[in-house]
Amino acid sequence: MERRTSVLKKSIWPAVGGIVAAAGIGGFGFFLFMGGWQNGEIALTIVGGLFLLGGVFMFPMSIWSAFNDKRGGYGDCPVCGTAMVADKGDARNLLCHGCATYIDAQTDHLTTITGDRTHHTPYWAAPTPWPDIHVTMSKMVAFSAFDFAQDKLIELMMKKAGNKELGAHWPAGCCVCGKPATRTDTLVMPVTVGGQFRDSKATLIARDIPYCAEHKDGIAFDNVLSFNSRGDHHSFGIKFRSLAYRDKFRELNPWNWAGLPPLKTAKPPAPAGSSPGLAIAPAVTAAPSPSAPAAGRAAPTLWPSLGVLFDIDELGASDDERVFYGYQARLIFMRHFKPRRFGRAYLWHGDTQSTLDGARERRFCIAVTTPWPAGIEMVRAAFAKAADKGLAPPALRFVEHPVDIDFASGAPKPIRREPLPLWLSIDDNHTAVLPAAEREDIDLCERFSWRYRVGS
């Protein structure tokens, strides 16, 4: 799967925020401790002491981190543009509340996570379908008979919310490792749901969770308090041990975070992929509907396509460039493709199906769909003689009909033999039309003197 990146602007304020938080925790603990000590409240003294100790340890560690760790900062989510904060320049597993994507900070940029990551306990969060469950309450320990009686009274006064069924569609394979599932399990979790006026009791149920014979406890319901977007955000979710399985679960169950704005889909996601040992089918980004053939010319009802293949392992001259192999492929393609010689066309790009299925020879494809066979042959001729490093061998360089478009029924219908999302289109004025204002594509258009605009 190709990574998506955005700029991380360095700032001292995330580190300063850690120092201020440590000082606040220590100060709060000191006042609790002194208040409990002076009034003979043992429980308050213990709680205050714990906060005080936490602040004492955190304060010097925060100062040390501010001057010795890679400096963090602020940036926009590379998928949806939500403002993100990274406390360190090498922070990992940052969660965007805007699109529920996990992101890493890498020195001076934010990048989406490719492949799979696993955790020994459920860690990777996804939304649930329950808009009324924003947060669940933990059961407090009673330090006295009065506290115990008060807790029982509150419990009796709680509303009964009954059973809440998850009703999820589960991806194929074990939810931990992706191997073929041999059994299913049910997760039942009683919770106390925090309400505006009073709390309520509910039982959350997830049925038919797929497991192999080797694994169990692959998911859990839990509060999600670790959003790394700017602002105060929290919600409730379902957590997974496998990030790749969690991503596939989100595709089948596109729910929103409770208590937060709907998930953003303004920018098209990167082509989805799979990881070794995890059978996850690629997601196909819906492309804007192509318009009908231009008036005055009898365009065919079936627009053919031709794909140019690139060797993923040969794209880029360094390890950093090879990570962003999709950008390297687009750079080579734009060097040889001339929109001013072309009529209307649609361009697609992404990993080939065989690559997503784990083939040894990994290929990235850029395809051109056009109503005129002469345009197809123009693309073939341009790339047949190209010698750029990263192109597939000449005998294996082209794929026929990867994404044709059928106008036979009047409405355009893409016929996909490869799971390629739309990259851009070329209009009748030979202008590249970008679906979103991606900085990388704008820079490439300007570099190769392509006329371009952003919009449909």
Helix tally equals 9
Secondary structural class: alpha+beta
Number of domains: 3
**Shape assignment:** elongated
- The overall pLDDT average reads 79
Query: What summary fits the major beta sheet?
Result: 7 strands, mixed
Number of DSSP E strands: 23
Largest sheet: spatial strand order = 18-15-17-16-21-22-23
Rg, rounded, reads 27 Å
Distance between the termini: 26 Å
Q: Helical content, roughly?
A: 25-40%
Quickly describe the structure.
With 456 residues, this protein is α+β, with helices and mostly antiparallel strands. It contains 9 helices and 23 strands. Helix 1 packs antiparallel against helix 2.
Describe the structure.
- The protein is of the alpha+beta class and 456 residues long.
- It is 26% helix and 27% strand.
- The chain contains nine helices and 23 strands.
- A hairpin with a 6-residue loop joins strand 2 (71-76) and strand 3 (83-88).
- Helix 1 packs antiparallel against helix 2 (42-68).
- The chain is elongated, with a radius of gyration of 27 Å.
